[in-house]
Prior knowledge:
The complex is a heterodimer.
Chain A: H1 17-24, H2 29-46, H3 50-54, H4 56-73, H5 76-79, H6 85-106, H7 121-145, H8 161-170, H9 175-178
Helix pairs in contact in A: 2-4, 2-6, 4-7, 6-7
Chain B: E1 10-18, E2 23-31, E3 41-48, E4 57-60, H1 65-69, E5 76-79, E6 84-87, E7 91-97, H2 100-115, H3 124-133
Antiparallel strand pairs in B: 1-2, 1-7, 2-3, 3-5, 3-6, 4-5
Amino acid sequence: MDHEGRRNTRGPHENDGHNRRASSAAPALPPALDSLARFLQAASNFGTEIAFWRSHARLIELRQASAELHSILLSPQVFEMAEPNRTTVLNAFESLLGAVGALKEAVPFRTRVGAIRRSLVPCFQEIFVLHQLTLAVVVRLRLHKTDPDGLPPRAGSLMDLDAKRELAQSLHTAMPFWQKEEWNVYDHL
Amino acid sequence: MSTITCERGDILLINVPIGEDLLMRLRPAMAMHDCSPLDPLVSIVPLTADPMVNCNSVLVPLGSFESARMGLVTSAYLNTVDEIAVPRQFLVQKIGRCPYRMLSQFLGMYRSSLGFSHPAGLSLTEQAANAVTGEVTSRPQLSGNSA
């Protein structure tokens, strides 16, 4: 991954002075966003060519991007950020998620008969991981942004009370393990 | 009513009533049998934040390919507990699929720990369906697997 300009504190979607101030409050974010954005730019230019992915350097770049996302997931200050910084960061990651999702769909890992090209399996797997980690960051940012009482409306909230009680009873062994607040990220997928 | 078709190994989000106020939250679970939109019940095993007690568990760490393929956004444990029959109305979405190798490993553990403990080896959904129709199905019992 090209490391030039990593001192640049602007993310890919932070172009005005206000956002530059916002990103300076979150030192863990800009290098990750910046390098990911540059890699995705290169991938969208060359990513439909198998030769692009055959280079071992691509796998290293993908793994480095995943490691950066991992470090973001382990940084509580990213998720406890105050508004409007959090919205700025969330918007930047939502855009990245779209780009990684498009990459996952576009790259030619499958042969004409639908099998995955064996030599590209590690890259294929790493793009899945990259997408997953970006999604994990996004849903955690969404969770922290949402008012705890303001859950997204779900059909389940309209269900009959007796049916809910019956289900709670049949799932009673799993309930203690499902009450963790961090797991409310699944409400924001 | 959900019209999702699922296969064994699909990872599903289900609506779960959490806490005393039965607030509905989404939680992941794995389908244990194929099911069509006409089946009223779906057999699942829960994916949880910590290993459940009295069973074997497989850790699926966040950042692994298995976790990514399963569509999870947290590290999770897959538990060999008795499968639970959930009414289809609580099914919300299919988010991924357990990769073949991990599914085989899990099912191997599952069968050795409790898979043969069900009477006549029937799944819970089969038992529930038989209870509704009053049908009694007998299957050959394997000897020495009553644990």
